[in-house]
Design a protein that fits this description.
single chain, 389 residues, alpha+beta, DNA Polymerase III, Chain A, domain 2, 3 domains, 13-stranded antiparallel beta sheet, nine-stranded antiparallel beta sheet
Length: 389
């Protein structure tokens, strides 16, 4: 392989591709980057066995071929070079081959292995992709970022540890959903073009893809069996996907509400952060909660700990002004503090609507006032009256 390419283009590609490589791995493909030069392009690929990233840059190709080179070492050399033209070449030596990086003021050699021996990502190699459909991947990435907090953090949790994408051909919407069995976060996107779709992508893998989905939007989405991918003009991303049954989240979202309260997001967020700090420092019990007590004009937020089986004791209270989308009425509900914080940390709107039933043991729904397509359903805790009431 012999080609000439701009160092700036290589630098940009390596900053993306090395996010999934691991120089300490025993796997050849996890340590190296695959370079393939042909037809005026240099294709660069990296993988950690779960994610496959592919990036193309313009090149002057004098001899086609492919080679696998150490990712981190290649990046360390290129990142410290000024903008210049690089000559990349594979050379045969007595015990194999080496990779030459040559520029105006110097040259470096790296160990290299035959590109044909670089293991192709098994799932990608065997997958017969569906027809591609153009997707606003920036909007998709934003939706995924909104709901990811609700997924189970344990990667062994199966579909609960991922983000679910569901599209029914009878509808024009795509659901982006995450749940850990105690709460559900869902964003509904308008998309008439996508075919019938039901797959779950591990949250661990999505963190590599999201910056690229935003940067190269729009991209063509493809999927088949256990693979989902997005293809752009210069960049391609492929992730593993789970096809197992996903919890029927539609069935747990009520269609009507008895109480609808409007709160200021910033006021609620700062109050919850203070309460989290108080609850974290109180070591008397691990059973803690936040109780919301609404009256006609205000909302009392109480940080509470369980003192015994008879009830909770309040260790902090704050009072917020509220508005109503329903008739003002009194209600109480108790929730996990970190469940509320997770939602308010991702909301960018200035107001949030809380929707509740008359029964304090039924789910609570929250959504940004100007973005009803983003909803968060959370199960309340057992209701016990505070000892300071």
């Amino acid at each position: 392989m012999i080609c000439e390419v701009a160092s700036g283009a290589i630098r940009s590609a390596l900053n993306i591709l090395t996010s999934v490589t691991n120089p300490r791995s025993f796997s050849v493909k996890a340590r190296n980057i695959l370079l393939t030069a042909r037809d005026g392009r240099l294709r660069m690929c990296s993988t950690d066995s779960y994610v496959w990233l592919q990036y193309d840059v313009d090149a002057s190709v004098q001899e086609s071929g492919s080679v696998a080179v150490p990712a981190r070492e290649f990046q360390a050399i290129v990142n410290n070079l000024p903008d210049t033209t690089l000559r990349l070449q594979t050379q045969s030596i007595k015990y194999g081959s080496q990779f030459l990086i040559e520029f105006v003021t110097g040259k470096y050699w790296l160990p290299a292995s035959d590109g044909d021996a670089f293991p192709m990502w098994g799932m990608l190699e065997s997958a017969e992709m569906t027809e591609d459909y153009e997707v606003d991947t920036a909007a998709l990435a934003r939706a995924i970022r909104k709901v990811m907090f609700a997924a189970l953090r344990d990667p062994t949790g199966g579909v609960y540890a991922g983000v679910h994408l569901r599209k029914d051909v009878t509808t024009s919407t795509l659901d982006v959903v995450a749940t850990d069995a105690y709460r559900v976060a869902k964003v509904t996107l308008q998309d008439k073009e996508l075919p019938n779709l039901a797959l779950t992508i591990p949250s661990r893998d999505l963190k590599y893809a999201l910056p690229l989905l935003e940067k190269f939007s729009p991209m063509a989405m493809v999927c088949k069996a256990t693979v989902v991918g997005w293809r752009g003009d210069t960049c391609e991303i492929y992730l593993r996907a789970w096809r197992g049954d996903y919890p029927p989240y539609h069935k747990v979202i009520p269609s009507g509400w008895a109480h609808e309260v409007v709160v200021n997001k910033d006021e609620m967020l700062t109050a919850l952060r203070r309460m989290r700090n108080v609850l974290k420092t109180d070591m008397r019990t691990t059973s803690q909660r936040v109780e919301l007590h609404a009256r006609e004009y205000d909302l009392t937020i109480s940080a509470q700990i369980m003192i015994d089986e008879t009830g909770y004791e309040s260790v902090g209270e704050e009072y917020l002004k509220i508005g109503w989308h329903s008739e003002p009425s009194e209600f109480r509900v108790a929730l996990q503090c970190h469940f509320l914080l997770d939602f308010f940390n991702v909301v960018r709107d200035t107001q949030v609507v809380l929707c509740l039933q008359d029964d304090p043991h039924k789910p609570v729904l929250l959504y940004p006032a100007s973005d009803p397509a983003f909803v968060y359903l959370v199960m309340p805790l057992r209701s016990v009256v505070s000892q300071k009431d």
